[in-house]
Fold:
Amino acid sequence: MNQHRLIFHIDVNSAFLSWESVYRLSQDPEALDLRTVPSAVGGDAKSRHGIVLAKSTPAKQYGISTAETLASARKKCPELVVVPSRFDLYLEYSKNLIALLSDYTPDIEKFSIDEAFLDMTGTIHLFGDPIEVADQIRGRISRELGFTVNIGIAPNKLLAKMASDFEKPDRTHTLFPEEIAAKMWPLPLRSLFFVGSSAADKMERIGLHTIGDIAACDPKILCAHLGNKYGTMIHRYANGIDEDPVAEKDPLNKGYGNSITLPRDISDLDTACQVLLALSETVGARLREEGVRCNCICVELKDWQFRSLSHQMTLQVPTDSTSVLYQNACKLLKEFWDLTPVRLIGLRTSRISEDRYEQMSLFETEQSRKLKDLEKAVDSIRSRYGIDSIKRASFLSDSRVVDHAVSKKKHLHQKEES
Structure:
């Protein structure tokens, strides 16, 4: 582990919920601050369809988790306030956050819409003590943007991410090598990044209960029970070893995608399609915002053993349509998924082309042009009145996924490509 590196991990506290609250208060200072009551950003509050995309700190006290159904959440907390999501609005807040962070370093990896890694190794000397700089960043975000973040400071991305997840909200935490034994090893298995319920159950059956137990365990034993690749990775993570660099920005228009690591494994098609619908909303909005279309769609899955599966298809007509992305993503999923429990679901688009050139395509039909205009109108209406103020006809064919949402972080892992 290179101890000379200095990495900050920025994590917005209850991002969608916070951004929704900030916006509502900016429009009406007397409005209810959703962060102070049990609340969630999700689907249709009246019909109770959809999934929880973000929840307030008071809602967490009822055991409500990201990606569970609204019906389940309302059973836990009947008085839960549910509001529709406005992804275009959240994109704007995310952009403002990255713009502020760029004042401190050019080496930024946007890990998801509400998370970012900053490599401060080459610039920290310009600002001062790392903890003081992190506190300065938190203060600026609160004053200038209106929401709070946690910041983790460490010599690598893994430890920085672990540190940012310590006590919340609005805190700065460090996790340097000499602090691992006291701060990280006593934590339960599931607190280690990428340890899901299935892997945790297997480890608990062989007597492992904390991250420290994993760190002290013979790697051969872990590999025998978890597989060589996953067992080796988890042992390295438990010992704070991670050499992954803060990634450079992808070339412009290389691809657009999103993924979400779920708080628990899922193995049913309906729930997986709901997640794909949420991902399609985010990716479609990004494509339309950038004025581009994709020619290829890929669905990616990752199970508890860190095994990755993917399936892709080339479209007959380039698209930026949420409906088209969703329909084809579900088709791909049904073709290659055998319902083995998965922890992560992703949607990726590639072979990007600029919209103005595609408008002249011989393959574009009158129907596709009308659909494009419809999608833009939907974006505009949702931006003003909320995502559930208007619904796409294509979604009505399956009442189980009519009430949709836009993708939210994992709990901690939703990666976006751009």
User: Anything to note?
Assistant: The CA atoms of residues 230 and 305 lie 6 Å apart. The mean pLDDT is 83.
